[in-house]
Design brief:
The complex is a heterodimer of chains A (135) and B (509).
Chain A: H1 2-8, H2 15-51, H3 55-58, H4 60-72, E1 75-78, E2 81-84, H5 89-102, E3 112-113, H6 119-131
Parallel strand pairs in A: 2-3
Antiparallel strand pairs in A: 1-2
Chain B: H1 2-10, H2 18-35, H3 41-54, E1 68-70, E2 75-80, E3 87-88, H4 107-124, E4 128-134, E5 148-153, E6 156-161, E7 165-168, E8 173-178, E9 185-186, E10 191-196, H5 203-212, H6 216-227, H7 231-235, H8 240-246, H9 248-260, H10 265-272, H11 279-289, H12 294-306, H13 308-319, H14 322-325, H15 337-354, H16 359-374, H17 378-402, H18 406-409, H19 412-442, H20 461-473, H21 480-504
Antiparallel strand pairs in B: 1-10, 2-4, 2-9, 3-8, 4-7, 5-6, 8-10
Helix pairs in contact in B: 2-3, 3-12, 3-17, 5-17, 6-11, 6-16, 6-17, 8-19, 8-21, 9-10, 9-19, 10-11, 11-12, 11-21, 12-19, 13-19, 13-20, 15-16, 16-17, 20-21
The chains are: A mainly alpha (135), B alpha+beta (509).
């Protein structure tokens, strides 16, 4: 399909040639990436079925406590802020103060404070992406 | 006293021109944006500093080394101004000379340009060596209103055709070998003469070879591959479509460039790729399709990439509602190492089989990623992520900046490319956002349209813009990792488009 277009496109193509070049090119890219998207999904399905990741066994061991938190929903109310049971009051005060400083005193209300299981991983990623501002 | 006078005349002040001063202001503006506004300083500082150096009467910085002068086309020599043993001296500031006459449509304009070029060349010492009449004349995007023009070269009146090629001296030295004389048939790349000099070329002449020989773009891709986590893309493969949609900007700009009537089809394609927001790919394609436009295309691509945080947000906000900007996307699943490795191999095989022309880019991008993900080449991966990409960025940035000489930059053609470049960026951003909105019509699992703009590649700046804009609407919404999917897809998409263009225009290496 591409070869026939190649021969046709001159330095000054006609409007029709230009349109077929543009439409052909765009459709080509969309189709290739859509195919890649399907292939990637299939790889995902295949991997999850074949490997049977040992996540079910591994996860509870190191992350038992944090993973259980959202499900357990053991929360308390501190001055109208809903927070996890194991977050002490002074940490809540600290978070409120930090929020106030970061938002530069703009009106704000903290509704809930929850521990998160992947915060450090996310922070690590953020740091990596913000430290390499090349290209 | 006379010695002081001579010393004074040897200083660079006498070589200064108004264009240089204008370019100092441009370089100053870019440095200001980089240093004080922090617009991608890692890119803009080397570019701006290179631009400043390019517009100073430097010595041993940019000048080409003496050596063979080659024929640019197959044709017949109709004018030769050199003889064996003749000395050729280049001026302190080398100007960009026209390679052919016919790009100027008006006859009076062409006559004036040629006369002024010859006059200037005589004063400066920049010498026209040959005029070659091509066997198959080039066709112009806009046909000149004249076919012939009469000029006087070395007191001899000559009639030149608008398609005749002009070969200018590019280095000082003496003519040690003369291979072509008037009436001789020459082929493209044949040696016309050899200039000998004991001086070597300038520092940046050699560094810039990394661009000319297309070494830097694949090496940058190696580093980008090593830096990029394909996990978000693999976890949410439909974002590949956002990267594909953003490529519409490339094709729309091609149409715009063709419509302007200034450029031919291969030049228009090279300009269009600016919309991919991918500097290395832009350089790679411009080198292959329109080497004469390499400098403005590289400058436009890199400058606009640095200005992504300024260009994209207004378009993103205009095309989305407050409600859409607040969409929180479902957390991405964990992607196993094996999955990442299989993905890298599948993409490299699939894409190279489809567009072999894009092999250097796709191949090294996924080599870098494989080094990162395989887990047994940590040292190599770290070198690609840090030392290699940093060194290449310095060299690439300054090499791009060094092309920004006043007489090359302050031209209608360049300004048109800059204007088309920003249109390309805008359309690419809008296409990504609109594609995300379109996908939301059919999907239960909604996509925040702000991540669509990251389909323009520009890794990871565009993804960061999506994150920042998302947080402006909802401070608890983290879009960065979601935006990395289309961002990486955009890199692959732009490389595919470049491969398509190179295949269509038959520009293999």
């Amino acid at each position: 399909m591409m070869i026939s277009t190649i021969a046709a496109l001159a330095a000054k193509p006609t409007v029709l040639e230009n349109v077929s070049f543009i439409v052909g090119g765009f459709v080509f890219v969309v189709v290739v990436l859509a195919t890649l998207s399907i292939v990637t999904s299939l790889i995902g399905v295949l991997c999850s079925r074949l490997i049977k990741e040992p996540t079910a066994e591994q996860k509870p061991a190191p992350q038992a406590a944090p993973a259980a938190k959202p499900a357990a929903a053991a929360t308390k109310q501190v001055n109208g802020i809903e927070a996890d049971e194991d977050i002490p009051a002074h940490v809540i005060a600290l978070i409120a103060a930090a929020t106030h400083v970061i938002l530069e005193g703009r009106p704000q209300r903290i509704v809930s404070i929850r521990g998160t299981t992947q915060g450090w991983a996310q922070e690590g990623r953020r740091e990596i992406f913000s430290s390499h501002r090349v290209r | 006293m006379k010695q002081f006078e001579e010393l004074f005349y040897q200083t660079g002040f006498f070589a200064l021109e108004w264009r240089m001063i204008v370019m100092w202001l441009v370089a100053g503006g870019l440095l200001y944006l980089a240093v004080f506004k922090k617009f991608e300083p890692l890119l803009l500082v080397p570019i701006a500093f290179g631009a400043l150096l390019a517009n100073l009467p430097t010595q041993n910085m940019i000048n080409s080394p003496a050596g063979p002068v080659l024929s640019p086309v197959d044709g017949t020599v109709i004018v030769s101004t050199v003889s064996l043993g003749q000395d050729i001296t280049m001026p302190a500031v080398v100007h960009e000379m026209p390679a052919s006459i016919g790009k100027l449509t008006s006859k009076s304009e062409a006559e004036e340009l040629l006369l002024s070029q010859f006059e200037k060349a005589k004063q400066d010492g920049q010498r026209l060596l040959y005029v070659i009449r091509p066997d198959s004349p080039e066709s112009f995007a806009v046909e000149p209103e004249y076919s012939e023009i009469k000029v006087t070269i070395d007191s001899t009146p000559v009639t030149l055709r608008n398609t005749d090629k002009l070969v200018w001296a590019s280095a000082s030295g003496s003519v040690s070998e003369l291979d072509a004389e008037v009436g001789d048939k020459v082929v493209k790349g044949a040696e016309l003469l050899t200039v000998h000099s004991s001086h070597t070329g300038g520092f940046f002449h050699y560094i810039s070879l990394g661009i000319v020989l297309e070494l830097f773009p694949p090496l940058i891709f190696l580093g980008v591959g090593a830096l990029t986590d394909f996990g978000p893309l693999i976890a949410n493969p439909r974002t590949l479509l956002l990267g594909a949609a953003a490529q519409f900007g490339v094709f729309a700009t091609y149409a715009g460039a063709m419509g302007s009537g200034i450029f031919d089809s291969s030049q228009a394609a090279a300009i269009g790729i600016i919309g991919g927001a991918d500097g290395p790919t832009s350089i790679f394609l411009a080198n292959a399709l329109a080497p004469e436009l390499l400098a403005p295309i590289a400058v436009a691509a890199y400058s606009y990439m640095a200005l992504v945080p300024v260009i994209q947000p207004p378009i993103m906000r205009a095309l989305t509602t407050e409600q859409e900007r607040k969409i929180r996307m479902k957390s991405l699943r964990q992607v196993s190492r094996l999955e990442k490795l299989i993905f890298a191999l599948v993409v490299v095989v699939f894409c190279i089989l489809l567009v072999p022309a894009a092999s250097p880019l796709i191949g090294l991008l996924l080599l870098g990623n494989f080094l990162r993900e395989c887990g047994v080449t940590e040292r190599l991966s770290k070198a690609a992520q840090n030392e290699l990409i940093n060194v290449i960025t310095i060299f690439l940035g300054t090499s791009v900046g060094i092309t920004m000489t006043g007489d090359r930059f302050l031209r209608t053609e360049t300004l048109a490319i800059l204007a088309l470049g920003i249109v390309a960026f805008g359309i690419a951003t809008a296409s990504g956002v609109l594609m995300a909105k379109f996908m939301n019509l059919f999907s239960k699992n909604k996509i925040n349209p702000l991540i669509g703009s990251a389909g323009v590649s520009a890794v990871p700046m565009a993804a960061r813009v999506s994150q920042v804009e998302g947080q402006k609407a909802d401070s608890g919404n983290f879009l960065l990792m979601h935006a990395m999917g289309p961002n990486v897809a955009g890199v692959i998409g732009t490389a595919l488009v470049a491969g398509y263009f190179m295949t269509v225009f038959g520009s293999g290496h």
